[in-house]
Amino acid sequence: MVAHVCPWWSVPLTIDPPLRRWLHDPRKIVGPYVKPGMTVIDVGCGVGWFAIPMAAMVGEQGKVIAVDLQRQMLDMLRRRAEKAGVADRIETHPCEQRRLGVDAHADFALLFAMLHEVPDPTRLLGEIHDLLNRGGKLLLAEPPLHVSRKALAREVAAAEAVGFQIVEQPRLRWCRAVVLARTEPGRDG
Ligand SMILES: C[S@@+](CC[C@H](N)C(=O)[O-])C[C@H]1O[C@@H](n2cnc3c(N)ncnc32)[C@H](O)[C@@H]1O
């Protein structure tokens, strides 16, 4: 495992703390973008802080594709999703560090506290752009302790270089965040 990737064994120390619920309430953060019937992709999903609530939000007709580099994260996510009764709506997908390798059409993508861990952000953003339908949104959120304003601006410039446009800069607790959209025709035509 590369040194700067959040290690899977640290998760039991941080999982589900009330502080995180207050800081990063999934209903407030992704609720405005995720609707019933959507296909959403959570890249660097960890143990499913967002993927599991998003599975409830997309409903029986929707799907969450949960992607992570570390299989242990995906195994924990699956166990938690089973407990929550939404495992049938979540597809887990182990990826490589420089390649997602997902084949899907998505309406929404989430990169939460992960892009700064990626060695080639432009490549990853390009892959996500290719997966989105026209009008599909990407919420990019980074932790302020790890990612300065300037570093986020570099990530946003990389996103714009692959075709994304900024549509919103939400104010989220303990995050630097931006919502980007694919405006040209996507895989859905
Ligand atoms: C800080 S954790 C955040 C997890 C989750 N998004 C959350 O907010 O709870 C970062 C996650 O990104 C994953 N990750 C790091 N580099 C990755 C890459 N190149 N491709 C996919 N996942 C990656 C790590 O394994 C880890 O699960």
Question: Which descriptors apply to this entry?
Answer:
189 residues; alpha/beta; Rossmann fold; seven-stranded mixed sheet; binds S-adenosylmethionine
Computed Rg? 15 Å
Query: What is the H level of CATH, i.e. the homologous superfamily?
Result: Vaccinia Virus protein VP39
Using DSSP, what is the number of strands? 7
Main β-sheet, spatial strand arrangement: 3-2-1-4-5-7-6
Mean pLDDT: 93
What gross morphology would you assign?
globular
Catalogue the unreliable spans.
none
**What CATH architecture would you give?**
3-Layer(aba) Sandwich
Helix content: 25-40%
The number of helical elements comes to 7
Number of domains: 1
The first-level CATH class is given as: Alpha Beta
Main β-sheet description: 7 strands, mixed
How widely separated are the two ends? 38 Å
Derived from helix and strand composition plus strand pairing, the structural class reads alpha/beta
Portion in beta strands = 15-25%
The secondary-structure element order is HHHEHEHEEHEHEE
Bound molecules: S-adenosylmethionine
Topology (SSEs and partners):
Elements: H1 11-14, H2 18-23, H3 26-29, E1 39-43, H4 51-58, E2 63-68, H5 71-84, E3 90-94, E4 106-112, H6 121-131, E5 132-142, H7 149-161, E6 164-168, E7 176-182
Parallel strand pairs: 1-2, 1-4, 2-3, 4-5
Antiparallel strand pairs: 5-7, 6-7
Helix pairs in contact: 6-7
S-adenosylmethionine binds at residues 5-6, 43-46, 49, 67-70, 73, 95, 97, 112-114, 117-118.
